[in-house]
Amino acid sequence: MRTDEAAEAQRVWRPEGALDVAGTLGVLRFGPRDPAYRRTPDGALWRCSRTPGGLGTLRVAGTPTEVEARAWGPGADWLLDRLPALLGAEDDPSGFDHCGNALLREAHRRNPGLRIGRTGLVMESLVPAVLGQRVTVGEAHDAWRTLLLQHGAPAPGPAPAGMRIIPSARDWAVIPSWEWHRAGVDGKRSAAVVRAARLAARLEQASVLPTPEATALLTAVPGIGVWTAAETLQRSNGDADAVTVGDLHLPNTVGWALAGRERSDDAVMLELLEPYRGHRHRVCRLLRAARLRAPRHAPRYAPIDYRGI
Question: Which SUPFAM superfamilies match (predicted)?
Answer without folding.
Answer: DNA-glycosylase
